[in-house]
Design a protein that fits this description.
By secondary structure, the chain is mainly alpha-helical. It has 2 helices and no strands.
């Protein structure tokens, strides 16, 4: 049971670091793909040869 004293704050810390990393990536435009949809509509991958 004493190990929970260390593991619970560690898990919360790792979760907070991951949350901050996600928001940093979101703020810096890491998930933006302005050209992806334009190229995806033109691809004909679904046509069978």
């Amino acid at each position: 049971m004493n190990v929970l004293i260390y593991l619970v704050p560690l898990a919360l810390g790792v979760g907070l670091i991951a949350l901050f990393a996600f928001f940093w990536a979101l703020k810096n435009g890491q998930f933006d793909d302005p050209d992806g949809a334009a190229h995806r509509i033109l691809s004909d991958d679904d046509l069978k040869k």
